[in-house]
Amino acid sequence: MRSVLLTDTNTFEHVTRERPDPDPDEALVRVTDVGICGSDVHYYEHGRIGDHVVEDPLVLGHESAGVVDAVGADVEGLTAGDRVAIEPGVPCRRCRFCTRGDYHLCPDVSFMATPPVDGAFAEYVAWPADYCHPLPESVSTREGALCEPLSVALHAAERGDVGVGDTVLVTGAGPIGLLVAEAVRAAGATDVVVTDVVPEKLARAEARGADATVNVAEEDLEARVRTYTDGDGVDVAIEASGAEPAVAALPDVVRRGGTAVLVGLPTVEEVPFDVHAVIDGELDVHGSFRFENTYPDAVSLLADGAVDVAGIVDFTEPLDRLDTAFERAQDPTTVKGMVRVADVGD
């Protein structure tokens, strides 16, 4: 089967590998669609993310979907020909986090495209069948692949306890930020304000229904938020950019008793934060890491037409042009690039 390996920084090698055989609890999936995540680009450019270092050739890509080709002897509920979204993180299922339902916090999780676990820029993937989620006919495999970033957004909205009538600030209009805006709207938010520094991305956010946008390279965020909320601040702020100024600004834009959620990863580990404002305003501050038990909800929302993931896609390239796809993904105006691996399933 065709696979693409990251062999060095900014270097892909197209190789032929043996097609995997599924274990008894696995499904063999013929991959059709893979999204290019910011983490993929970071590994491509730098060869590492924090403590995760690419020491051996690695297949990138963790936002994926495809068509079941075969299933292991113990698999029930999936058959060859089923279209599935592949949830990329498989936990140990035994630790205290897994047994209480927080499997995304499992310290021994195997996560696609995180060294040394290979990802989905390959023709076939063998993966535990209970992490392969069937797609209804109304949901394409492209949309199925984007259940992964949508799940990140749904989890962030849940961490913020977003509810009916809330005003929500989303900082960052990249793929996660735009999908967070969709997720909070689905949760009942009445007003959604989106920030960025790239005019094209702000235009995209406005076209997708943001009630207000703020170019923080040109405007004072706190002043705009205070004006928009009659001086109160937003009910919930979800930081999806990883930009240090956006993180530092959170205590200034959330109302007293409100909530701030951190989902974007800054390039540095420490960012100045006004702890006095957090205490005085009795703010709830939450981290949001990946997701858990979100894929069924993501698929249902897509089937109902309640969220739009296809609309964040700027381009699609075939697998044999993966180098070109990654070059295009690095354009600051790009929100999301996709790779089409096989023309089957849709």
Would you summarize the structure shown here?
By secondary structure, this protein is an alpha/beta fold. It has eleven helices and 19 strands. InterPro entries: ADH-like_C, ADH-like_N, ADH_Zn_CS, ER, GroES-like_sf, NAD(P)-bd_dom_sf, SDH-like.
Summarize the structure in words.
Keywords: Metal-binding, NAD, Oxidoreductase, Zinc. Residues 1-13 have a biased composition (Polar residues). Residues 1-25 are annotated as: Disordered. Pathway: Amino-acid degradation; L-threonine degradation via oxydo-reductase pathway; glycine from L-threonine: step 1/2. Its cofactor is Zn(2+). The protein is of the alpha/beta class and 346 residues long. The protein has two domains: 2-146 and 309-340, Medium-chain alcohol dehydrogenases, catalytic domain (Quinone Oxidoreductase, Chain A, domain 1, Alpha-Beta Complex); 153-287, NAD(P)-binding Rossmann-like Domain (Rossmann fold, 3-Layer(aba) Sandwich), CATH 3.40.50.720. The chain contains eleven helices and 19 strands. The chain has helices at residues 38-46, 96-99, 141-145, 147-159, 175-186, 199-207, 221-228, 244-253, 275-280, 295-304, 322-329; strands at 2-8, 11-16, 26-36, 48-49, 52-53, 63-71, 83-86, 89-90, 110-111, 124-128, 132-134, 167-171, 191-196, 212-215, 234-239, 254-262, 284-287, 313-318, 336-340. The strands form five sheets. Strands 3, 6, 7, 10, 11, 18 and 19 form a seven-stranded mixed sheet that branches. The chain has a six-stranded parallel sheet with strand order 14-13-12-15-16-17, with helices on both faces. Strands 1-2 form a two-stranded antiparallel ribbon. A hairpin with a 2-residue loop joins β1 and β2 (11-16). α4 (147-159) packs across α5 and α4 (147-159) crosses α10. The chain is globular.
